[in-house]
Specification:
The complex is a heterodimer of chains A (237) and B (421). Chain A is α/β, with parallel strands linked by helices and 237 residues long. In chain A, strand 1, helix 2 and strand 2 form a beta-alpha-beta unit. In chain A, helix 3 packs across helix 4. Chain B is of the alpha/beta class and 421 residues long. Chain B has two domains: 104 residues, Urease, subunit C, domain 1 (Roll), CATH 2.30.40.10; 302 residues, TIM Barrel, CATH 3.20.20.140. Chain B is built from 13 helices and 20 strands. Classes of the chains: A alpha/beta (237), B alpha/beta (421).
Chain lengths: 237, 421
């Protein structure tokens, strides 16, 4: 898109030397940046920035809060495959508590008229999330029988997910999707995953690579969606 | 010097003039006359306001001074000015300074600072060394040096067994343990009250049970040790119900809530304002309603400021990285003026005047002729806006700046000093 890009990562930046996020970003802005795409580990980090600096900010994931462009590309990918989302049944499976993808997907899919059910171990589902108008199930087979599309979230090995269940083995036994389970369902459902996949944990390779999976279409659509977001925010419409 | 409080409604249950409108004349620190109409000639200063009220000087059982250690946040001098402006004549100070208040010398140092100040600092000693919840501090020695209570402060870690030991140990001198029942393990790194708002904001919630289970433990330990305990930072409806039941059964338990928990709910966090990052966290409207009700019926004994000064570097950060706490001494009464009415105000004043004194075994000043003056003057109908200009704290971590409140503190009159009057 012909933009000039400055890449910046916290681990190699001053944020690890005591400089605050505001200082760091102000320094970047001094270079006359028009737009910031930020992924940050703190919930609300993008909103925090927006209160302090004048630039277009794209939230590319703020901790366990939201990941808006992932939701847009997921919704687009479902629509590409199935058409109108109104009345569709979408399951989001896995670590809901630590997932920014889940929350953005819930908001986006509900806005488009879809029904959302969450499934995972009770320790990975926030206590009050049903108040958002979603269903909650702890049984994967029931959930897969119910849904048209299953979005299998990545188990966040680097975050707190792993403290909330006994072992990856047990997780994959009860919440992992393999070919046998997929084939035993009464209808053909669509499989999604926000990537990167822990093959053999949330889904097995033969499910990820099956003709029911649209995982690579999600990746492709992600490029287009993110180009569109940047284009619209740059004011060149 | 003669000061006349003109047509003041008196809030003092121990006085014959309780809830009566009177003129009160103070001369050289003594209340010399209380009457219907006292002549103003030869009076040096006349205090008037549309709805002038006076009560016994107010007591805050939970304030943090950052001297020694972090004097850039708060000193004894700055906190005493903020306290006087907020109507407080007595402050219970948390021991979490650097170094920790954990020996008799530190307790004596606080008493010395008190003598030079507009308000009395009530020293609390650490319950355990460094407030780490592991080894008992020298409680007996601190008691003889003047410590009025023992606590490890706000949201400190504690072991149930060490707490039991401390409660048994202070029986020897009828000491008081002050506990924040917050259970760090159950809070599990939570950033705000657990509820639908925490879900929407993607922030880990602190369940109310992280407080309520601590309350249960305290109740059982108080029964077991037959020792009194005071719980600070009570914020959930479940906690106050547990405390009500325990009190009804004769358990020696008292408790405080914080003024901000009477007015701010968790939905205010929608903008991730780190000035609203506090422990206990802002809770639900149902919790707020329960707290207000239980202050009125006396289940909640006292209301505190939970004054916690934090510098900008500790607050102007991403929400999860910011420190917990807000300054609060100057906004306690403005908040109470919002949540009370003419029928309930006396209960809220009780919660910052006579009730905390009873818990801390402090002498109760009386608004009566011949008594020493220890007076806070206030007007529940005089609008007040808390601005950086009127803030006496060295820190600025308040979410209430530029907010207008119904009521205002007029000032304190105490110890020959006349503040903000």
């Amino acid at each position: 898109m012909s933009a000039d890009i400055i890449n910046f990562s916290a681990s190699s930046s001053s944020t690890s030397k005591g400089e605050t996020l505001i200082d760091t970003v102000n320094n970047i802005l001094a270079m006359k940046v028009d737009m910031i795409v930020m992924r940050h580990s703190s919930p609300g980090a993008a909103q925090f920035l927006s209160k302090h600096i004048k630039a277009n900010i794209i939230n590319a994931g703020d901790g366990t809060h939201e990941h808006p462009t992932q939701a847009l590309l997921d919704a687009y990918s479902i629509r590409e495959k199935h058409g109108d989302l109104k009345g569709m049944k979408i399951a989001i499976v896995g670590d809901i508590t630590h997932s920014r993808v889940a929350l953005s997907n819930i908001f986006c899919l509900q806005k488009l008229g879809a029904n959302v059910r969450l499934c995972g171990p009770p320790t990975l589902i926030p206590k009050y999330i049903e108040e958002l108008g979603v269903e909650v199930s702890y049984n994967l087979r029931d959930t897969l029988e119910w849904c048209d599309v299953a979005n299998m979230l990545r188990i966040q090995l680097e975050r707190a997910s792993v403290k909330n269940f006994p072992s990856l083995r047990e997780y994959s036994l009860f919440y992992g999707l393999d070919r046998e389970l997929l084939d035993s369902l009464s209808k053909k459902i669509t499989i999604m995953h926000p990537g990167p996949i822990n093959r053999g944990v949330e889904i097995t390779s033969d499910v990820a690579d099956s003709d029911q999976s649209i995982i690579l279409q999600q990746v492709e659509n992600g490029v287009a969606i993110r180009m569109a977001v940047m284009y619209l925010l740059s004011g060149k419409n | 010097m003669k000061i006349l409080f003109q047509s003041a409604t008196i809030f003092d249950r121990s006085s014959a003039h309780h809830l009566q409108q009177r003129d009160v004349l103070v001369e050289e620190n003594i209340i010399v006359k209380i009457g219907d109409k006292i002549a103003t000639d030869q009076v040096d200063q006349v205090i008037t306001s549309n709805h002038l009220c006076i009560s016994q000087g107010w007591v805050d059982m939970n304030a943090t001074v950052e001297e020694p250690g972090h004097e850039y946040r708060e000193t004894y001098q700055s906190i005493s000015k903020a306290a006087a402006a907020g109507g407080f004549t007595h402050l219970g100070l948390m021991p979490n300074t650097q170094p920790t208040v954990q020996n008799s010398a530190m307790i004596e140092m606080i008493a010395k600072n008190s003598a030079l100040s507009a308000c009395v600092f009530i020293p609390y000693g650490a319950m355990t060394n460094q407030c780490e919840g592991k080894e008992l501090a020298e409680l007996y020695d601190m008691h003889f040096a003047g410590a009025k209570a023992f606590t490890d402060g706000n949201s400190a870690p504690y072991s149930t067994n060490v707490l039991k030991r401390a409660m048994l140990y202070v029986k020897a001198f009828d000491g008081l343990i002050i506990l924040d029942p917050y259970d760090q393990s159950l809070a599990d790194g939570g950033l705000m009250h657990e509820g639908i708002t925490s879900v929407k904001l993607g922030m880990k919630g602190i369940p109310a049970i992280a407080e309520e289970l601590g309350v249960v433990k305290a109740i059982y330990l108080s029964k077991y040790t037959n020792t009194r305990i005071h719980l600070i930072n009570i914020s959930s409806a479940g906690s106050v119900e547990l405390i009500r039941e325990a009190k009804a059964k004769g358990v020696q338990i008292t408790c405080s809530c914080n003024a901000y928990n009477l007015i701010l709910n968790d939905e205010k966090l929608i903008d991730y304002d780190s000035n609203l990052k506090v422990l206990p966290p802002l809770r639900s409207n149902a919790d707020i309603a329960a707290l207000v009700k239980k202050v009125i019926d006396g289940t909640i004994d006292t209301i505190c400021s939970a004054h916690t000064p934090i510098d900008e570097e500790g607050k102007n950060l991403e929400f999860d990285l910011a420190s917990n706490g807000m300054i609060g001494l100057q906004t306690v009464f403005p908040i109470l003026s919002e949540v009370s009415n003419s029928k309930t105000l006396a209960h809220f004043i009780d919660a910052i005047s006579n009730r905390p004194r009873a818990i801390l075994n402090q002498a109760l000043p009386t608004i009566a002729e011949g008594s020493k003056a220890c007076i806070t003057a206030f007007d529940p109908g005089k609008q007040f806006t808390f601005t950086p200009t009127v803030n006496f704290s060295k820190s600025k971590n308040s979410p209430f700046f530029n907010q207008q409140f119904k009521g205002s503190v007029i000032g304190t009159f105490f110890n020959h000093q006349n503040k903000s009057l």
